[in-house]
Write a structure and sequence with these properties.
The complex is a heterodimer. By secondary structure, chain A is of the alpha/beta class. Helix content of chain A is 36%, strand content 18%. Chain A has an 8-stranded mixed beta sheet. Chain A has a 4-stranded antiparallel beta sheet with strand order 12-13-15-14. The chains are: A alpha/beta, B alpha/beta.
């Protein structure tokens, strides 16, 4: 079983580039019994949340990762959830017998199905830092502050160090020095491929999960170049896609050879992408509406004053400043529904400078999320219309802004290339993939036994 | 010779060796326990009169106790005190709560130090860092070169066998000299006790809390402790299982994460 993740690669762009001949390997794979699906992803449509949904096969209400940052319970203390905060076991924990005390609805479904632990190679999946002992090899993806702590076992770290592997590129360079940034992307892709092939050949494994994140980085800063042949970086954008296509093709061929064409191969992304017109700072908007007041003391979210009724976190998460949930919270349980109804009305009416509605969908947290981690869920989440990137900055005073980024995530246009033999009923969703992968593994286990 | 005297001798040897090689040298004094111990050793090395300037990098966010201690002892010990401040950024309102802490540190600490070094043309700096503070510091040499960008190439360092130290840095760079690199946190407190070195009261328990490591007011937090004098701190250190900079290691990862997220437009 092999799954290659391509961070932020949209189904629509794969379709277009395949038709235009930019992606010959994808074209070849699609011609050999595979199908391209447009896949919906978890809400919020952000890498930490969606990759966790992919690797655990459950919704954020069960795995507990709602974004790259969150607040500690009963406080305003900001923290960055790591792999330790993921409350549901991952695919490799379930098949490898290393799920420990973590459990989930998916893990329960497959309890006892894998009596013999299966080995996994897990490369560069975001939200897997710090690496925990597992049955196989893992090197963490974004955010990975320390490659050694992000890699298990230590021999794998020694190898990665020896090839000067990089867990990520420096996105700041995309603003200050674009040519140097693109060179770094090329270097990172080379190292990614080198490491993938090394572990592919050298390890004994039953499941290989590898993610390429450079696609997302490039798209954030160059997505305006995708459709514009006159754009200075159009060729560089296509070149990056060709490079990724070549890596996918090489891995596909080797995997087919190794499994005599019987292995299950798939590619997928954690969200789609589209062109960014405007960034909308929801906290500035809440301040304008009189729902959020900041104090001059404290840092970040500790600046929320007691009279605040609401605040937001990246990307489109709203929290009611409820009494009992936050130290200075004043909104009483009886008022909460009213506050959320007012917010829903206002946010649905919010329009951008061009008069278009900013928000496409509004969801109440209690309806959208279900499971053991529901208590820390946002009270309301928004999915934006294409072009409006939702942010929740506490420092920027402007509601609308155009920053250095030209691309933004979409919730509806993730991609998944699956064998036609695997049945997909209705709209494919990222939270279904782990179940599909486990079923395939269970089937091959039964056949082998 | 007892343990503390052996450590003291080694430090004084390094301080004198550095000054012999770099007459245009200075010492960094953060007013914390390590650099105040280093200052004490420098006074001993030169019989009470330190022949080089002492630099305090002032971010303007230090505790009042720190400023008070600095001014009192600079006068008492006749120090040639240089206060390095990035006035431009301080006036512009740079503060830990204005953005990422890393930006604040880099503007108010690193840039302030860079311009102080450039202004006076120092070619060596004495620093009070210790090997046991952090994994990466275990790789430090006693004489450690920095290039013009302040970068430390730790994979390219000469061995320091038989107390032979490197005395050159690349053009435009400077040498960092670490006279108390070989001491541990426990050694420092034992030495403070033996010599009765004055310390800022922030280290001693006040309403059940004390600072174990002191930075700026907004960016360091006290630990739970009942230790209200040096003897009690020594007892606490011999029994504690928390690392001195445990909080700071997490801070570092968080600062890294924040920087990465901000580069992608979050925060």
């Amino acid at each position: 079983m092999m799954a290659i993740g391509l961070d932020g690669v949209p189904a629509s762009l794969i379709r277009q580039f395949v038709d235009q001949g930019v992606l010959p390997n994808f074209a070849r794979i699609l011609g050999r019994g595979y199908r391209l699906h447009q896949m919906h992803v978890s809400i919020p449509e952000i890498s930490s949340t969606c990759w966790t949904s992919f690797m655990t096969g459950v919704n954020p209400g069960e795995h507990g990762i709602y974004g790259f940052m969150d607040l500690r319970p009963q406080s305003y203390a900001l923290y960055f959830p790591t792999y330790r905060d993921v409350q549901a076991p991952t695919i490799w924990d379930i098949v490898g017998g290393t799920q420990g005390g973590r459990t989930s609805s998916l893990a329960e479904r497959f309890r006892g199905v894998f009596p013999e632990p299966l080995r996994a190679v897990v490369m560069n999946i975001p939200q897997t830092y710090p690496a925990q002992p597992m049955n196989g090899v893992l090197t963490a993806g974004f955010v990975c502050p320390d490659l050694q702590r992000g890699t298990y076992p230590d021999t794998a770290y020694q190898y990665l160090k020896s090839i000067d592997y990089v867990p990520d590129v420096d996105a700041e360079k995309a603003v200050t020095d674009k040519p140097a940034f693109l060179k770094d992307v090329e270097y990172a892709l080379t190292k990614r491929e080198e490491a993938f092939l090394h572990f592919f050949e050298q390890e004994r494994w039953d499941i290989f999960l590898g993610v390429i994140t450079e696609t997302d980085r490039v798209q954030h800063f160059f997505y305006d170049a995708a459709q514009d042949p006159g754009h200075r970086y159009h060729d560089a954008f296509l070149e990056m896609y060709r490079r990724v296509d070549a890596i996918v093709g090489r891995l596909f061929d080797r995997f087919q050879n190794m499994t005599h064409g019987e292995g299950v191969f798939l590619t997928m992304s954690d969200h789609g992408f589209t062109v960014l017109d405007q960034e909308i700072n929801l906290n500035a908007w809440l301040q304008q509406q009189g729902w959020l007041r900041l104090r001059d003391q404290g840092q970040w979210f500790d600046r929320i004053a007691s009279e605040s009724k609401l605040f937001a976190m990246d990307p489109g998460r709203f929290y009611v400043h409820a009494a009992g949930r936050y130290p200075r919270g004043t909104v009483q349980p009886s008022e909460k529904a009213g506050v959320l109804a007012d917010l829903t009305g206002a946010v649905e009416g919010l329009c951008g400078p061009d008069g278009r509605r900013v928000v496409r969908e509004v969801h109440l947290g209690e309806r959208l999320y279900h499971g053991q981690a529901r208590a820390s869920a946002p009270d309301l989440v928004c999915v934006p219309n294409d072009g409006y990137d939702l942010k929740a900055n506490l420092l920027q005073p402007a509601v609308f802004r155009k920053g250095p980024m030209t691309g933004m995530h979409t919730q509806y246009d993730g991609h998944c290339v699956l064998p036609e033999s695997l049945p997909v009923e209705g709209q494919l969703h990222i939270e279904q993939l782990a179940g599909t992968i486990l079923e395939c593994l269970a089937k091959s286990c039964t056949l082998a036994c | 010779m007892d343990h503390l005297t052996a450590l003291e001798n080694k430090s004084i040897y390094i301080i004198r060796e550095a000054y012999a090689q770099f007459p245009n040298m200075a010492m960094l004094w953060s007013i914390g326990k390590d650099s105040t111990t280093l200052l004490w050793l420098c006074r001993k090395a030169f019989f009470g009169a330190i022949p080089f300037p002492v630099i305090h990098i002032d971010t303007s966010y230090k505790f009042p106790e720190i400023y008070q201690f600095r001014d009192e002892y600079a006068k008492k010990w006749g120090l040639n005190l240089i206060v390095g401040r990035n006035e431009e950024q301080i006036q512009a309102g740079m503060a830990p709560w204005k953005g990422a802490k890393l930006d604040c540190c880099s503007a108010l600490k690193t840039d302030a130090l860079k311009s102080t070094i450039a202004k006076y043309g120092f070619d060596a700096l004495l620093l009070g860092i210790r090997r046991d503070e952090h994994g990466i510091r275990a790789k430090e040499r006693v004489f450690s070169p920095r290039n013009q960008q302040f970068a430390w190439d730790y994979q390219n360092q000469s061995a320091e066998l038989w107390d032979q130290y490197r005395s050159e840095s690349e053009e435009g760079g400077h040498l960092r000299v670490h006279p108390i690199l070989h001491m541990t946190e426990l050694d420092i407190w034992q030495y403070i006790q033996r010599e009765s070195i004055p310390m800022t009261p922030l280290y001693f328990s006040n309403e059940g809390k004390r600072y174990r490591s002191i930075g700026c007011t907004h960016c360091c937090t006290p630990v739970e402790s009942q230790a209200s004098n040096v003897s009690e701190i020594l007892i606490e250190l011999q029994t504690t299982t928390t690392a001195e900079r445990a909080g700071r290691a997490q801070d570092k990862e968080d600062a890294f994460t924040m920087q990465k997220l901000r580069a992608l437009g979050y925060m």
